[in-house]
Amino acid sequence: MAQGVTAFLPESQEPVVPESLSLSVVVPVWMEAASIVDCLRPLAPLREAGHEVIVVDSGSTDGTAELARPLCDRVVQAKKGRAVQMNAGAEVARGNVLLFLHADTRLPDNALDELRWFELNEPTWGRFDVRLSGQRPLFRVVSWFMNKRSRLTGMCTGDQAMFVRRDLFEALGGFREQPLMEDIELSRRLRLVSRPWCISSPVVTDSRRWEKLGPWRTIFLMWRLRWRYWRGESPESLSKVYRSDVRND
């Protein structure tokens, strides 16, 4: 190039940030035949981009695993229990970032772009904001409070699609295999390492549980369980309270 001549890159040749994100989406399921296809189909673009989706089934007898198999990279069988299942999925995952997705939760369309920003920054774990799928105005209020609480406390629930760097997850020993509050328990330990990376583009969680029990009853149940857990009550006893309340509906 001649001396004194400044070179400009055309817009189409702007430097590109190298892809460093390798994502493994772990989906724990049990008896989800009615919704598993709707859960996995939106994840196809992630798989096309080279990331993996792992479904962890716990002995479903309704065909969940068979329906999931063509739409994911592998189906793993594990004992029943969300924490047990998520640990089993993480154990076989290849990605450097693990994302734990409930079968009734949908990622936003820009999830991959948002997670690339996370990968390029310092935080070691994070979660998405959440929006309940129902159209009732109360659900918008509930979602706002869930997100606000999470930002203030640095705590994450499973409905918010928690993600964490794999090396840290393994160093902490993964989820404690308890029947309830495994997400809160892991959040407490992760929070000692860093504050969560909060993605404002919301995941959408099916509001059927809220509609079945009633919004106010569900709110009071969840807050009561978290309060008792914070006071030191065991996850095993709280799980019995939760199952009893749901069955009495």
From TrEMBL:
Glycosyltransferase 2-like domain mapped to chain residues: 24-140
Pfam families in UniProt: Glycos_transf_2
Family matches, as InterPro entries: Glyco_trans_2-like, Nucleotide-diphossugar_trans, Trfase_2_rSAM/seldom_assoc
Source organism superkingdom: Bacteria
GO function terms (MF aspect): glycosyltransferase activity
Compartments where located: Cell membrane
Keyword Plastid: no
Protein name per UniProt: Glycosyltransferase
Principal location listed in the UniProt entry: membrane
Keyword Transferase: yes
NCBIfam families named among the record's database cross-references: glyco_like_mftF
Keywords: Cell membrane, Glycosyltransferase, Membrane, Transferase
PANTHER family the record matches: GLYCOSYLTRANSFERASE (PTHR43646), GLYCOSYLTRANSFERASE 2-LIKE DOMAIN-CONTAINING PROTEIN (PTHR43646:SF2)
GO cellular component, one term: plasma membrane
